[in-house]
Amino acid sequence: MKLPVVGLTRREALTRSMGGLGSVVLSWMMHQESLQASEPRSVYDLLPRAPHFKATAKSVIFLFMPGGPSQMDLLDPKPILNKYDGQDSPIKVVSRSFDAKPKLLGSTFKFRKHGQSGLEVSELLPGLASVIDEVAVIRSGVTERVDHDTATCHFLTGRNTTGFPTIGAWAAYGLGSENQNLPAYIALQEGGLRKFYPGFLPSIYGGTLMEPEGIPLPDLQRPEGWSVADERSLIDMVNGLNQFGREQHPELSELDTRIANYELAARMQVEAMKAIDVSNESEATKKMYGLDERISKSAGERCLLARRLVERGVRFIQLQLGAWDHHSNLNAGLKKCCNETDKPIAGLIQDLKQRGLLDSTLIVWGGEFGRLPTAQLKDGRDHDPHGFTVWMAGGGIRGGQAYGATDEFGYAAVENPVSHSDMHATILHLMGIDVRKLTYDYDGRVETLIGVNPARVVKELII
């Protein structure tokens, strides 16, 4: 059925569509299927797309620790800080603090060597210590920004300003999804839209916010009193109108995204509920993730759901865990964050490995920057963009190594600095993508994730 172009009001279109636009949508979907075999895919769908070269990582779990974890208290031990605790720093330390002469602040936490690799890990992270041979610790992270907002933008989008797609959106755009009933990019976190924003990419590639409890996708809840048939009729009607508009105005290509989103939303109602249903998970598995402890339950639920989404072919899962901005009361704040997240994250690594999924799943952990070796407000640390720690595991990463180094005080990277753009290039490389070849034409420019920033794949991290 094709609606006439002349003499049809919107009200008439809505009235007529209830009986016949389902066939329009069906024929459009059949046409799309026929195109899959003979023509390049549309940029408005999530069909799987071949990588530039063979990938080692099919999926990424991106663990974002907002605020900036303190590297010298967790994974980059600096015993000299304890030796000179409370004394003036012998090196120049640039701080945002009003204190013109900040004193050095030692760490009260003990470090021990773990695993066959002998990597040193803080007593705050016993879970991570138990799997440290799977982990590549990058001790030389650097960034250009010292404030949370712009540094977070850089860490997640590769740029220092808002409005650009996150790395998860780029991965979804480049590779699509192996599961057409779930988004390619899912965010399991609290936080603003810009942390999983599609930017100028079609909205279908943006992160979909999902909750591990209750209604996973509140916006997709069927209105009370509606049946599946009622909902299907409405979706068919709206998609039919969108397709009708698309045929009359081919320049409005964003209607393709709108149609695809309606169809994906309908399929997700069933698949998303299956993903969050952990009733078939063993008690041992739940305990591994810390679901039996109040302090780690929330992070554990998100980490367990991340594993279930990886099993279902979701390409990129982003978790935001903890609040690591410790300007004061550092010891108590760090203990809380680690107690909340350490067991779930270690459980995630263990679970993926025992299921044979770790080799094909890349895990990335880190914040937007680190903390200074000097004291702020007596018992806290200010922001440090000059040298901080992140880590990667699985997905082609050679674990059990420390890469790069900061100076003896932990202030600045002095060996093999790794920028956020370097990390992005490495992540996409492991997914089979050349960061410079994954492009999108926008407003007369050929855009990439890294823009004009220099970036290198850190091949020393890769098996």
Descriptive overview:
- The chain has 463 residues and is an alpha/beta fold.
- Helix content is 35%, strand content 14%.
- It has 11 helices and 17 strands.
- The protein has helices at residues 10-38, 79-83, 126-130, 148-157, 167-175, 228-248, 254-276, 283-288, 294-311, 330-354, 420-430; strands spanning 59-64, 111-114, 119-122, 135-142, 185-188, 208-209, 316-320, 361-366, 370-371, 383-384, 388-393, 401-403, 405-406, 413-415, 418-419, 440-442, 445-447.
- The strands form 5 sheets. Strands 1, 4, 5, 6, 7, 8, 11, 12 and 15 form a 9-stranded mixed β-sheet that branches.
- The radius of gyration is 24 Å and the shape is globular.
- The relative contact order is 0.20.
Question: What percentage of the residues does DSSP assign to strands (E)?
Answer: 5-15%
Rounded to the nearest angstrom, the distance between the terminal CA atoms is: 56 Å
Structural class of the secondary structure composition? alpha/beta
Low-confidence stretches at least 5 residues in length (pLDDT < 50)? Answer: 1-40
**Could you state the order of secondary-structure elements as H and E?**
HEHEEHEHHEEHHHHEHEEEEEEEEHEE
The tally of beta strands, per DSSP, is: 17
The number of helical segments is: 11
The amount of helix comes to 25-40%
Compute the CA-based radius of gyration. Answer: 24 Å
Shape: globular
Average pLDDT rating: 85
| Sheet having the most strands | 9 strands, mixed
